[in-house]
């Protein structure tokens, strides 16, 4: 099958899921009034298993819970900040708490992670989701970096019971993975570039930035983390062991429970010798307008800033 | 099956006394809001209304009961034990170390469908279950027992709209309408009535009944469960008294968190077991 090299994660995921709905009659797809080109197929082909609950994220999660308790595999789709934060208590009680006793197969799909809705401002930016969803026991958290990983998540989420959150970037992005077999969801991460002294550990959109930095600065390694929870921490520790510096890169608030916290835990528990440098948004919301590159530049997250950081570390 | 209404009322009296006995053992239990729902739970479980199997709590052929006002369902514990969901000896260990019968019941208790204690979730989850049962072509019914004060939560009304829009006529919500929140009468805090006109405006079928009148409850619930494919979900507003049968509670608008003394319990029950 020939596919374009650039695609949105949501269209890749939803398209593959729609294929599965032909044979897996347990799948329901629920949305809080949010569309996607690939979603039109589900709406047309499986109207009995597609429900738009309206602009009501709390009810989205509640109805999904009820369906899941009756044995269905339910996918819920809404804008990332609203599905995670408007309905956080529903996710906590009905998905995370409940699943400790009686696992429910609900996968929350949040569209527009980070600042991918660039000019929509702080309500539509989603810089908290990875940290707050990772905080919930029993909840798995995925942040794919391209449409190849997103497609791989379909069968995994169908067949692995329990609640999950997937952050989709809002924009069409090129593939980072040529071979889907490189995506080991049990392991949770993959090496995109080998390195010697500095490793960039990134997730989601930032893995594209990291990959470009590595092309500019040979010897800088890149590890893409697509599953923040669960993640094979021993394998990650082994992958990081030889580096002197680890730069974490995420479109989220740093020092507050996101990707950098995961890496900190691995470094601490495995007594790694590397120093950590978190790249991401500091403790303030982003009202400034401009391109995604501009928002990154003013927050020291663009390629130039990360390259400068690697150069400083090497010069020191 | 003919239901003996006198036996049903006398069972309700036993449940009421057991609820007080458990409160004596575990003063942390929310006794007042549990007492207002005694007849509702008793009628569901003993009035041939809620298909269930104590030996197999997740039996596919069961009707589903979601206790949205979870903390006010200590009165369901003796019923579940009596119906074989767990050993009656467990009742004596309520809230003790190692027991599964806590002050706010959860799915670790056989017979409970969902996590409770956080208000406002019951109707939405019930909507998903009702929809799921319809898709499975099941004829089983979903009941939700909700508190009146719980309707201050906006998520309840999100579920109310969903149920009507999706024509969930296999769903019946029972409002334990005891008129009290934690701090005051609901009407002084936030107007939730008139429930009947509000639900009817949302497309539901609504009835009102004296929630302590067992024959009336039984008749109303039977009619609502057997209403057939009307395309409309139903609500039964059960007018109740918080702390029913215990004067110290009935007369106290702050009774939600009240703890009764052993003497008060003895006086109310006349020492009955």
Structure overview:
The complex is a heterodimer of chains A (316) and B (273). With 316 residues, chain A is α/β, with parallel strands linked by helices. Chain A has two domains: 169 residues, Thiamin diphosphate (ThDP)-binding fold, Pyr/PP domains (Rossmann fold); 132 residues, Rossmann fold. Chain A has twelve helices and 14 strands. In chain A, strands 3-2-4-5-7-6-12 form a seven-stranded mixed sheet, with helices on both faces. A five-stranded mixed sheet of chain A has the order 9-11-10-13-14, sandwiched between helices. In chain A, strand 10, helix 8 and strand 11 form a beta-alpha-beta unit. The longest helix of chain A is centred in the first third of the chain and has 14 residues. Chain A is globular, with a radius of gyration of 19 Å. Chain A starts with 5 loop residues before the first strand and ends with a helix. The model of chain A has no long low-confidence stretch (mean pLDDT 96). With 273 residues, chain B is an alpha/beta fold. Chain B is 38% helix and 11% strand. Chain B has eleven helices and five strands; from the N terminus they run H-H-H-E-H-H-E-H-E-H-H-E-H-E-H-H. In chain B, strands 1-2-3-5-4 form a five-stranded parallel sheet, with helices on both faces. In chain B, helix 3 crosses helix 9. In chain B, 52% of the residues are buried. The model of chain B has no long low-confidence stretch (mean pLDDT 96). Chains A and B meet through helix 3 and helix 5 of A and helix 5 and helix 6 of B.
Query: How many β-strands of chain B, per DSSP?
Result: 5
Rounded mean pLDDT score of chain A: 96
* Name of the top-level CATH class of the largest domain in chain A: Alpha Beta
Tell me, what's the shape of chain A? Answer: globular
Q: Which residues of chain B sit in consecutive blocks of at least 5 with pLDDT less than 50?
A: none
CATH architecture of the largest domain in chain A: 3-Layer(aba) Sandwich
What low-confidence regions of chain A span 5 or more consecutive residues with pLDDT below 50?
A: none
Question: What does the radius of gyration of chain A come to?
Answer: 19 Å
Query: CATH H level of chain B: which superfamily?
Result: Thiamin diphosphate (ThDP)-binding fold, Pyr/PP domains
- Please trace the helix and strand order of chain B, writing H or E for each element: HHHEHHEHEHHEHEHH
Profile the largest sheet of chain B.
5 strands, parallel
Assign the CATH architecture of chain B: 3-Layer(aba) Sandwich
Strand order of the largest sheet of chain B: 1-2-3-5-4
Q: Helix count of chain A, per DSSP? A: 12
Q: CATH H level of the largest domain in chain A: which superfamily?
A: Thiamin diphosphate (ThDP)-binding fold, Pyr/PP domains
* Most extensive interface, chain pair and sizes: A-B, 29 and 28 residues
